[in-house]
From TrEMBL:
The active site is at E312 (proton acceptor). It is an enzyme of class 2 (transferase). The keyword Transferase applies. It holds the Pfam family DBI_PRT. Belongs to the CobT family. This is Nicotinate-nucleotide--dimethylbenzimidazole phosphoribosyltransferase. Catalyzes the synthesis of alpha-ribazole-5'-phosphate from nicotinate mononucleotide (NAMN) and 5,6-dimethylbenzimidazole (DMB). InterPro entries: Nict_dMeBzImd_PRibTrfase (IPR003200), Nict_dMeBzImd_PRibTrfase_bact (IPR017846), Nict_dMeBzImd_PRibTrfase_N (IPR023195), Nict_dMeBzImd_PRibTrfase_sf (IPR036087). Keywords: Cobalamin biosynthesis, Glycosyltransferase, Transferase. It catalyses: 5,6-dimethylbenzimidazole + nicotinate beta-D-ribonucleotide = alpha-ribazole 5'-phosphate + nicotinate + H(+). Its EC number is 2.4.2.21. One of its GO terms (molecular function) is nicotinate-nucleotide-dimethylbenzimidazole phosphoribosyltransferase activity. One of its GO terms (biological process) is cobalamin biosynthetic process. It comes from Crenobacter intestini.
Length: 345
């Protein structure tokens, strides 16, 4: 796979935005992370006063052979059923996309059972789910490449549709298991520090899930590159999300990273293209064990902590109004000079 060459955000526009923030009628720094968000959008758009972006949400769906081990509280069949629910507009992410007027596309990267043609669902099937990573490599590297490309193509469609900020979500019963393995690998953490309850498994399944991750990681050869790591312990939708982030950044478009699975995909993508993290914003702190460590490794601070553990891109969608407020405050507030307010001494 050719190395992705990424642009760098515009440092001059970022600095101009920071200077502008310091002129606004508020104590310096008092809008906290909203100030950083506005300045980072300035860097991404190359203008001191960035325009409010339209958001596009892409949900990648795929199944996981590892569900045969009993690592999820829900059966694999839910993945396909939820894709139908996405098409019918009934999932959490559908409600949030409608609320925010965001484009929503669902991409089938490898749901186990073939789906009928569904409105809003793009078929980019690589395989009928991954193989069971408890016992064997989840994917071949060719499958990883195909999934990465499915994600890249989806990012191009979102940008072509006029998006100024991208959101990747996922649906894949069992996917917190490969995500935990990826986070362990890229953060050099033991499974006990990363594996969580996902959809809500009991203590016995949590132990089993931890053992599965330990066994899968033991197969990784020393010095395996990100593609090989994804093939061994990853997932089709996770690889697609990585491709989506990479292509977004290549096109100069930032992505809001959702929860645990998104963080795992972002870590893999950053390993493929250092500097990608400069194009990412973290929406929230997930309840899932190990998410905080993954964000720390990415150098990202979550905007909110709402006790979420859903996925689908829901956390990222929930912060879109905060991003809009950050940019409106940046553009709309008076300066000390314009309002005749005395600045600090
Ligand atoms: C009805 C339903 C809707 C969901 N939407 C997202 N997830 C989330 O839960 C799954 C990961 O958790 P685990 O690894 O424990 O299976 C993923 O599909 C994720 O998107 C859902 C899960 C369910 C059951
Ligand atoms: O944080 C997430 O993305 C998450 C956590 C649990 C289950 N599904 C998703």
């Amino acid at each position: 796979m050719p190395e992705t060459k990424l642009p760098t955000p515009d440092a001059a526009a970022y600095a101009a935005a920071r200077a502008h923030q310091n002129q606004l009628t508020k104590p310096t720094g008092s809008l906290g992370m909203l100030e950083d968000v506005a300045c980072r959008f300035a860097g991404w758009q190359g203008r001191a006063v960035p325009r409010p972006p339209k958001a596009a949400i892409t949900v990648f769906a795929a199944d996981h052979g590892v569900t045969a081990e009993g690592v999820s509280a829900y059966p694999s069949a839910v993945t396909a059923e939820m894709v139908k629910n996405f098409a019918a507009g009934g999932a959490a992410i559908c409600v949030l996309a409608r609320q925010h007027g965001a484009r929503l596309e669902v991409v089938d990267v490898g749901v186990a059972s073939p789906l009928p043609a569904l409105s809003g669902v793009v078929s980019a099937r690589v395989a009928p789910g991954t193989r069971n990573l408890a016992r064997t490599a989840a994917m071949t590297e060719a499958e990883v490449d195909a999934a990465l490309e499915a994600g890249r193509a989806a990012a191009r469609r979102a940008v072509d549709a006029g998006a100024g900020v991208l959101v990747a979500g996922e649906m894949g019963i069992g996917n917190t298991t490969p995500s935990a393995a990826l986070i362990c690998h890229f953060c050099a953490l033991p499974p006990e520090a990363v594996v969580g309850r996902g959809t809500g498994v009991d203590d016995a399944a949590l132990l089993l899930k931890t053992r599965v991750v330990t066994q899968a990681l033991a197969r990784l050869p020393a010095g395996a590159d990100a593609r090989a790591v994804l093939a061994e312990v990853g997932g089709l939708e996770i690889a697609a999300m990585a491709g989506f982030y990479l292509e977004g950044a290549r096109l100069g478009m930032p992505s809001v990273v959702d929860g645990f699975i998104a963080a795992a995909a972002a870590l893999a993508a950053c390993a493929m293209a250092p500097g990608l993290e400069h194009w990412l914003l973290a929406s929230h702190r997930s309840q899932e064990t190990g998410h905080q460590a993954a964000l720390a490794r990415l150098g990202l601070a979550p905007m909110v902590d709402l006790g979420l553990r859903l996925g689908e891109g829901s956390g990222a969608a929930l912060v879109l109004p905060l991003i809009a407020s950050a940019l409106q405050l940046h553009a709309g507030m008076a300066t000390f000079a314009s309002a005749g307010v005395t600045d600090k001494a």
